[in-house]
């Protein structure tokens, strides 16, 4: 409707509209209020569904991240790819042994074949070791 302003001077040709009756406006107000309440309930329900879906997605993401961290933490489960290449390098069992290269600089003694059992290298070494 048109609002009627009070304390305003009016001309003869101004249209004055009387306010509507209270019965009609109260029914309309109740209908509008009911529609607004329905809309509010629908919005609340949508927000709850959205929050539940987001919480479920977050839970699934956290579970996935936790599983990935466990797989990365155990190189036996994931293999070389999951360990970031740490297990991909093949190492010998004696790589970290303290006395590994002790005889590296000593010259290799060539074995020579002598048909005489008294003059061969084994007999000379044996005599030097045990008879001296």
The 3D shape can be described as: rod-shaped
- Determine the strand fraction and express it as a percent band: under 5%
Looking at how many chains there are and whether they match, the oligomeric state comes to single chain
Structural class based on helices, strands and sheet pairing: mainly alpha
**So how many helices?**
3
Over all CA atoms, what is the radius of gyration? 49 Å
Residue stretches low in confidence (pLDDT < 50, at least 5 long) are: none
Task: Work out the helicity level.
Answer: 40-55%
User: In whole angstroms, how far apart are the ends?
Assistant: 133 Å
Mean pLDDT: 80
Describe it for me?
This protein is rod-shaped. The chain is 53% helix and 0% strand. By secondary structure, it is mostly helical.
